[in-house]
Amino acid sequence: MKKKKVWLLTILVVAVVGISIIAGQSNSLKAASSLGKDTLTLITSPDYPPYEFYDTKGGDRQIVGFDIDIAKTLAEKLGFKLQIMESDFNGLIPALQANRADFVMAGMTPTPERQKNIDFSIIYYEAKDTIVAPKGSNLKQPQDLSGKKVGVQLGTIQEQNAQKIAKKVAGIQLKQLNKVPEVVQEIKSGRIDAAIVEDTVAKGFAQANPDLEFNVIPSQEASGSAIAFPKGSSFVEPFNKVLQQMKGDGTLNKLVAKWFSQNTANPVSSTPVKSGLNLDFTRIVPEIPFILRGIPLTLLFTLLSVSLGLVWGTILSLLKILGIKPLTWVANAYTSVFRGTPLLLQLALVYYATPQLTGYDISALQAGVLTFTLNSGAYMSETIRGGIQAVDKGQSEAAMSMGVPYWLMMWDVILPQALKNILPALVNETIGLLKDSALVSTIGVVEILRSAQIVGANKYIYFEPLLFAGLIYYVLVMGMTLSASALERRLRQSE
């Protein structure tokens, strides 16, 4: 009987200890959930297969890839939901510094320069640099790049490594571009002799472009991909614990096998490579619904920007002609600033600075509409002012002699005539906004151009999706021009 009691007591103690250990591990992993939020925000650059890219089948807009699967596993184990945002690669670190996201996963290497501004997790995947060049160019070692033009993606570890190579090997000319597909296209067009690209990405481009080859550069120092966080982030420790678990239980190895053993490019035919552009639009036919989904967003953006810009421009123009010097000075100074600085700079400042200055997490679409409204208002104010001043003075004098209040006179008499006179200029401004809407792709808005770039990155091609996007823009502009011409003819009938 005593032996049975001893065994029962022993089993009970073991069970309690086991449960305590399991609960302790669980609590350590779930510790991050006590940080006052239930959703983690990941920001990435989904033009880098197989790390992160868009699954465009059936017109969907789902970001998938090696990094995305890791992020989902991390969020699940830590008890969070996951929200995914996107940006160009060179905008990822500014987004962290502006607290727009909790972490970045984009095949990013923790260099000493980056570690001064942001924190990193442990390395979760080792990769190597390669030299991508036309087949038969025999560029295999860094020394072979002497006297060559070499392309790199802006803001990447490959750019930094290329700069180090350029200090040791004489005559290398570096050319920085925003996206890897652009770098590869520069090789194919003959503007550069080679590019330095990560091996997993270079493999996909070489498979999709038989006229290219790649050779691995011997590694001089440790490198690899890590998760980036804002400086002082409390997520670094819990993320590291889960990454260690994923390494230990084989989860990471399974994801590596899943994403790096498959070919994300289209199968390549064995036919010889033709000279010239060698366009093949059949490759993007399945992706056309995805590109077309960018049209409503582009039109919405243009409509909002034009409408709000017209209202704001009208207010500015009235301030300029009221004759009150302080208001005139403010309106002129405003116009000078917004016409004298690049629109892309204004967009970046509004998107990245607003959260830091106001605490409001402005969305990419809101930032784009606000920036274009402020910018177009400055241009429209001068156009509207010219239209108002072109209206015969007898109109305003007659209204004033009849005792019509100034604001009512402007609204009912002067502005309708001015808008009729400046209609062609307003149409030109609208068309300009429609085309300039492509700039919002730099902050992650998936409009027409961004959709085409995503398809190009996924298919490892360049011209076909961009030419199709150009056709869409042309059709939209022609439709807008014809509509404006019909409206103008109708307005002229009343004269």
Structural class of the helix and strand makeup? alpha/beta
Number of extended strands? 13
Radius of gyration: 29 Å
Question: Distance N terminus to C terminus?
Answer: 113 Å
What layout of secondary structure does this protein have?
Elements: H1 2-29, E1 39-44, E2 47-48, E3 52-55, E4 62-64, H2 66-78, E5 81-86, H3 92-97, E6 103-104, H4 112-115, E7 118-120, E8 129-134, E9 149-153, H5 157-168, E10 173-177, H6 180-189, E11 194-198, H7 199-208, E12 212-216, E13 228-230, H8 236-248, H9 251-260, H10 288-292, H11 294-321, H12 325-340, H13 343-358, H14 364-390, H15 393-401, H16 406-421, H17 423-436, H18 448-459, H19 463-492
Parallel strand pairs: 1-5, 1-6, 9-10, 9-11
Antiparallel strand pairs: 2-3, 3-4, 7-13, 8-11, 8-12
Please provide a written account of the structure.
By secondary structure, this protein is an alpha/beta fold. The protein is built from 19 helices and 13 strands. It has helices at residues 2-29, 66-78, 92-97, 112-115, 157-168, 180-189, 199-208, 236-248, 251-260, 288-292, 294-321, 325-340, 343-358, 364-390, 393-401, 406-421, 423-436, 448-459, 463-492; strands spanning 39-44, 47-48, 52-55, 62-64, 81-86, 103-104, 118-120, 129-134, 149-153, 173-177, 194-198, 212-216, 228-230. The longest helix is centred in the C-terminal third of the chain and has 30 residues, at 463-492. The model is unreliable at 1-34 and 263-273 (pLDDT under 50).
Structural key phrases:
alpha/beta, 495 residues, elongated
